Amino acid sequence: MGKSLSLDLRERVLAFIEEGHSCHEAGRRFRISAASAVRIRQRFRQFGTVAPAKRGRPAGSGRLERFGGVLKARIEQCPDMTMPELAEALWQGHGVRAAPAELSRFVRHRLGFTYKKIADRDGAAAQAGARRAIRMAAAPDAEDAP
């Protein structure tokens, strides 16, 4: 994502346009696109300022904050629950619609939960699995062979 044009440049472009020049001329003169000059003029007409708008994702509305304890308890009760299942549980229990992506961000950033697909990668689950038996039978010189 590019940077916003400086406020000084925006003011000079607007002044040039207000002197009677076209946006295309302003673009050539200040080495910006004609579309940027048009947007600067539109922004001034609509908001009364040429200052750039705030960038980035808007801050959360906090509507899930009051359900933080409920969500945390539900996740601790059933840690392998998917986000769509959690969204459905929130809808059924409290009548609040939340997208799975919104819940995921809330759970990670506000509640501090992280997600690992396989928590016990090389532990007991991997040692007892069927794939290990196949590895053991196929390669007797494998590093995990007895």
Please explain how this structure is put together:
The protein has 146 residues and is mainly alpha-helical. It contains eight helices and no strands.
Helical content, roughly? 40-55%
Q: Mean pLDDT, nearest integer? A: 82
Broad structural category: mainly alpha
Order of helices and strands: HHHHHHHH
How much of the sequence is in beta strands? under 5%
Q: What is the number of helical segments per DSSP (H or I, 4+ residues)?
A: 8
What's the story with the biggest beta sheet? none
Q: Which word captures the global form?
A: elongated
Question: Termini separation (Å)?
Answer: 54 Å
Topology record:
Blueprint: H1 7-18, H2 23-30, H3 34-47, H4 68-77, H5 83-94, H6 100-109, H7 124-128, H8 130-138
Helix pairs in contact: 1-2, 1-3, 2-3, 5-6
